[in-house]
Specification:
Elements: H1 8-38, H2 41-59, H3 84-91, E1 104-107, E2 113-118, E3 126-129, E4 135-137
Amino acid sequence: MKRNAFTLTELLIVVVIIGILATIAYPQFGAIRIRARLKEVPNTVPIIAAAMKYYYIKTNSYYWFSKNGSGDGSGSDSDNRANYANAEAALNIILPKDKDDAICEYYTASEGYIHFRLWGNGVVLGNYNINTGVYSIEDTSYKKYLKYLQ
């Protein structure tokens, strides 16, 4: 007799195998996604840092900016942060405007540091010291990804 279909047992075995593979692969997918997101940071932050150093040399003060800042970027507090458009003009660089341009949002909140966070979650992911060129990760759950920033 000729068989034209799979038996229920064969289909169940295939579904179980796919389920086991998915269970193994899913946690790895999250880690790979975070590593991919962090690959952008070492390419973008040094450019911003170089512009910030140049600005500091010219004015003897750091330029303060964030995506939605409302100040002019002068002074020494984060309440006076300029928005991206003003920062681009002052620092002569192009900053990522939204999630379509970049994975991370960049801003300054303390002297000599550039902070970066993933778009939308509002949590500071890490910092870059402009003077030493050293990265640090704020969120302890992301500490294992520090090696991808070096």
